[in-house]
């Protein structure tokens, strides 16, 4: 049975596009179905792109709402979808314990650094400012902490030729776009076993 997923975005959605392509005709084709692309910002550019893919979209604006109130609203809204997984793809909001409890071990995130080295936002800036020759991308389950959940996989990114922040981002994103689908393939196919996963 195909897993029923929602993809959560807040912005341009380049990871979402890579996922939608792999769901349409790539390595995720037989493994999952996108029930919904969800954004917390009406101006998120990825929403329009998702519509062009013919995928259902929804937006509930988070601005001005308390974290838990907003999350309660989203959890209530998502109930009818009976989702197997929520895939965060540039969703720039920390999820409250209330949200995590509603979808425990069902929320997956991509983080543009090694979660044991750098947590939170600004990972490519961090790699650039610290003149890292290599960085890593982490795909992980989401728990109550910030980037502290069980790791599904890490992928090294070579930054040696990168002279600007834009080049660092470009190299990192190119890796994210292929690696996220590969990590999700392992989870949706059952190849990745949660109980064998390690913390960051
Ligand atoms: C990506 O680099 C993603 O890894 C990062 O935001 C960017 C979203 O780009 N996510 C985080 O930093 C989460 N903490 P996109 O909207 O083009 O996919």
User: Would you tell me the structural class of the helices and strands?
Assistant: alpha/beta
CATH topology: Rossmann fold
Mean pLDDT: 97
Query: How is the largest sheet built, in terms of strand order?
Result: 3-2-1-4-5-6-7
CATH architecture: 3-Layer(aba) Sandwich
- Number of strand elements: 7
The domain count comes to 1
Low-confidence stretches: none
SSE arrangement, N to C: EHEHEHEHEHEEH
Q: CATH superfamily assignment?
A: Formyl transferase, N-terminal domain
Q: What can you see in these coordinates?
A:
- A seven-stranded mixed sheet has the order 3-2-1-4-5-6-7, with helices on one face.
- Helix 4 links the parallel strand 4 and strand 5.
- It has one domain: 3-Layer(aba) Sandwich (Rossmann fold), CATH 3.40.50.170.
- It is built from six helices and seven strands; from the N terminus they run βαβαβαβαβαββα.
- The relative contact order is 0.16.
- Helix content is 35%, strand content 22%.
- By secondary structure, the chain is α/β, with parallel strands linked by helices.
- The chain is globular and about 45 Å long.
- The longest helix is centred in the C-terminal third of the chain and has 25 residues.
- It binds glycinamide ribonucleotide.
- Glycinamide ribonucleotide (GAR) binds next to helix 1, strand 5 and helix 6.
Topology:
Layout: E1 3-9, H1 14-25, E2 32-39, H2 45-52, E3 57-59, H3 67-78, E4 85-88, H4 97-102, E5 107-111, H5 123-129, E6 134-141, E7 151-158, H6 165-189
Parallel strand pairs: 1-2, 1-4, 2-3, 4-5
Antiparallel strand pairs: 5-6, 6-7
Helix pairs in contact: 1-6, 5-6
This protein binds glycinamide ribonucleotide.
Glycinamide ribonucleotide binds at residues 9, 11-15, 89-90, 110-112, 121, 123, 173, 176.
């Amino acid at each position: 049975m195909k897993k029923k997923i929602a993809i959560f975005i807040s912005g341009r959605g380049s990871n979402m596009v890579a996922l939608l392509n792999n769901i349409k005709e790539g390595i995720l084709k037989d493994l999952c179905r996108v029930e919904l692309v969800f954004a917390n910002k009406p101006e998120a550019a990825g929403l329009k792109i998702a519509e062009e893919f013919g995928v259902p979209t929804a937006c509930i604006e988070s601005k001005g709402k308390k974290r838990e109130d907003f999350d309660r609203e989203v959890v209530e809204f998502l109930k009818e979808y009976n989702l197997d997984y929520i895939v965060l793809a540039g969703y720039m909001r920390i999820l409250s314990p209330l949200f995590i409890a509603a979808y425990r071990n069902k929320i997956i995130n991509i983080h543009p650094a090694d979660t044991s080295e750098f947590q939170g936002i600004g990972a490519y800036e961090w790699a650039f400012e610290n003149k890292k020759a290599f960085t890593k991308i982490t795909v992980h389950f989401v728990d109550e902490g910030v980037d502290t959940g069980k790791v599904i996989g890490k992928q090294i990114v070579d930054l040696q030729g990168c002279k600007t922040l834009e080049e660092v981002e470009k190299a990192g994103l190119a890796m994210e776009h292929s690696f996220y689908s590969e990590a999700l393939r392992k989870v949706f196919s059952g190849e990745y076993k949660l109980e064998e996963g390690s913390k960051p």
